[in-house]
Each structure stands twice: as structure tokens, then as C-alpha cells.
Amino acid sequence: MEGGTSSNTLPSSGFAHVNMLRGWLKTRNEVRVKLVKTSIWSLCFAGVAIIALPMVIWLFKSEHDSALRSEAMLARVKRDLKVDQARMESAQPKIERAQLYEGIENRSIQVMNSVLGVVAATPNQVVLSSVSGAVSQGKLTMRILADAPNSDQKSLFEAQASRGPRVLAAFTTNQTKEENVFSNGIRFEFVKISEVKP
Q1: Closest CA to 138 of 119, 110, 96
Q2: Which residues pair with 189 in a beta bridge?
Q3: Which of 32, 72, 140, 168 is the most buried (most CB within 10 A)?
Q4: Which tens digit of pLDDT belongs to each residue from 117-136?
């Protein structure tokens, strides 16, 4: 019986060990499969990282280089803009001066033409004692002190001297009988106001 009992217990115990061994082997195989899958996924991620990392680094570097180039270009444009603004600011007074000189020249020509027009309009028998003028607020006011032998010559002078471009007014302010230049002559002050444009 001992032999029977032992034979009964051994196989059941050995069978339990076999089942345990099978369970352990099955678990070990499952762990191995999981480890292999995990290793494969890790290798894939590592491969992708190895392949992608240089590309990502290259992209970041190219973006960084592009940003540096843009900053350098922006700095260059700012510098050029400052230089251009300085040139414009230095040229502005020159332009203003040139316009001012041109305006002065134009006004001077107009004043001289007005004075010469009055002198040229003077009849032979009328004597000019003085000619003065002043420009104010775009108007030339000329005052002419003249002597005429008679009222006809005075009227002829007034008619001829009143002509010209942009004449606003022409009139006699003072008239006296004097014998300075002519015996029984007329001394008068003639005023002519003309517009002077820049």
C-alpha cells in the first residue's frame, strides 16, 4: 500500500508541478512577447527619433538662421532708413532755401518790372524826383514824387503809369503848384499798388 499511496500522491503532485510549470512557462512567454513588443516599439521610436531628430534640429536651426537673417535685414533697413531720413532732413532746408530764393527772385523781378514800367511810362516832359517802394503782404506800394509842366502832362503820366500786370490801385495823393522844376508846374505824389506773387 505504501507503494500505492506513494504512486497516488506522486503523480498528483507531479501533475501539479507540471501545471505550475506550464503556467509559469505561459506567463514567461507572455512576458517575453510583451518585452519583445515593447522592445520593438522602443526600437521603432528610437529609429524614428534618430531619423527625425536631425530633421527637427535642422528645422529649428534653419528657422533660427532665418530669424537672424531677418533681424540683420531689419537692422540694415532701419539703418538705411535713418540715413535716408537724415539726408531728407538735411535736404529739406536746402529745398526750402531754394524755394525761398526762387520766390525772392520772382518778387524782385516783379518789383523791378513795376518800377521800370512806371519809369518807361513817364512822358518826356514829366520829371521824376523820387521813386520808393515797399512790399508787404504780397503787395508792392510805390510812391513816386514827380513834377509836370501842366495838368495834361500829369494826367498823361497817371494814365500810362497806372497800367501794368496785377495793378490793384493807382491814384494821386498830393498835388501842389510849385516852381521848382517848371515855372507854374505841378508837383504831385503818385501811388501805385500792385500784387506781387511768389
Answers
A1: 110
A2: 145, 174
A3: 140
A4: 888 888 888 888 888 888 88
